[in-house]
């Protein structure tokens, strides 16, 4: 899936809502409580292009809609997840990401990361601290990921700190070289950006991001990634 993008100011405002695809852990009940259930019948298809489908759904009490991106990515589960776990890859495939570091943890199943999204003048840059957790099913091979914004760990700067961010990923192996990826997200952008503009810009975020994720996952240093398991055959890292 190849694409090129020349960003103007409107495009750059999209980065407010992007976060790193890092590893996370969720239960279905917790995700449902935050409007992140991909099986919810309220999702409405908005875009279907190059094998990527984008859906919107209203979220109670918010002027900003949740979005869901679905795609079959031509890369192995291990390659994709290694890209997601390494904070420094943020600048390669997350739109507008200018800085990303791991703060605490670093294990596959739980850690914290900090990132900055660069916006053009006159908009202020956004930053965020996220708790990242992961859970995998040894029987099916499915990995569920949950990310949520948290307070603390990094002192506030002149950037606008995102406070409300809920993201869920479901990765299902198809074969050794392809993975079914579902990405559901709802984020409050903070600051002075109207909800109608946010909803207009949300449409392209999953499309461009999933395209870049596939490209990065197929670099030699990630394409060779293999999982390391514990005695319960749960993923604990990479080799």
CATH class: Alpha Beta
Structural class: alpha+beta
Uncertain regions spanning at least 5 consecutive residues: 1-32
Count structural domains: 1
Count of helix runs: 7
The amount of beta strand, in percent, is 35-45%
The CATH H-level superfamily is START domain
Order of helices and strands, N to C? HHEEEHHEEEEEEEHHHEE
In the CATH classification, which architecture applies?
2-Layer Sandwich
Mean pLDDT: 81
Specify the helix fraction band: 10-25%
Gap from first CA to last CA: 27 Å
* CATH domain fold name: Alpha-D-Glucose-1,6-Bisphosphate, Chain A, domain 4
Name the shape in a single word.
globular
Largest sheet: 10 strands, mixed
Number of strands: 12
Provide a brief overview of the structure.
The chain is an alpha+beta fold.
Structure, described:
Helix content is about 20%, strand content about 35%. With about 240 residues, the protein is of the alpha+beta class. The protein has a single domain (about 20-220), classed as Alpha-D-Glucose-1,6-Bisphosphate, Chain A, domain 4 (2-Layer Sandwich), CATH 3.30.530.20. The strands form 2 sheets. Strands 1, 2, 3, 4, 5, 6, 7, 8, 9 and 10 form a 10-stranded mixed β-sheet that branches. The protein has a two-stranded antiparallel sheet with strand order 11-12. The chain starts with 8 loop residues before the first helix and ends with a strand. Residues about 1-30 have low confidence and may be disordered.
């Amino acid at each position: 899936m190849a694409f090129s993008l020349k960003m103007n100011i409107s495009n750059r405002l999209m980065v407010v809502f992007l976060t790193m695809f890092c590893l996370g852990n969720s239960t279905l009940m917790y995700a449902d409580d935050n409007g992140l259930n991909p099986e919810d019948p309220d999702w409405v298809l908005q875009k279907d292009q190059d094998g990527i489908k984008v859906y919107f759904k209203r979220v109670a009490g918010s002027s900003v809609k949740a979005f869901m991106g679905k795609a079959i990515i031509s890369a192995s589960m291990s390659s994709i997840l290694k890209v997601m776990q390494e904070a420094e890859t943020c600048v390669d495939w997350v739109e507008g990401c200018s800085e990303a570091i791991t703060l605490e943890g670093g294990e596959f199943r739980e850690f914290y990361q900090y990132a900055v999204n660069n916006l053009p003048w006159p908009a202020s840059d956004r930053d965020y601290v996220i708790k990242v957790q992961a859970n995998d099913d040894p029987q099916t091979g499915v990995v569920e990921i949950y990310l949520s914004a948290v307070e603390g760990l990094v002192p506030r700067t002149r950037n606008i700190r995102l406070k409300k961010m809920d993201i869920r990923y479901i990765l299902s192996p198809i074969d050794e070289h392809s993975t079914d990826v579902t990405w559901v997200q709802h984020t409050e952008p903070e600051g002075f950006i109207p909800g109608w503009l946010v909803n207009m810009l949300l449409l392209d975020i999953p499309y461009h991001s999933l395209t870049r994720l596939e490209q990065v996952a197929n670099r030699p240093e990630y394409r060779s990634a293999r999982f390391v398991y514990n005695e319960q055959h749960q993923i604990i890292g990479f080799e």
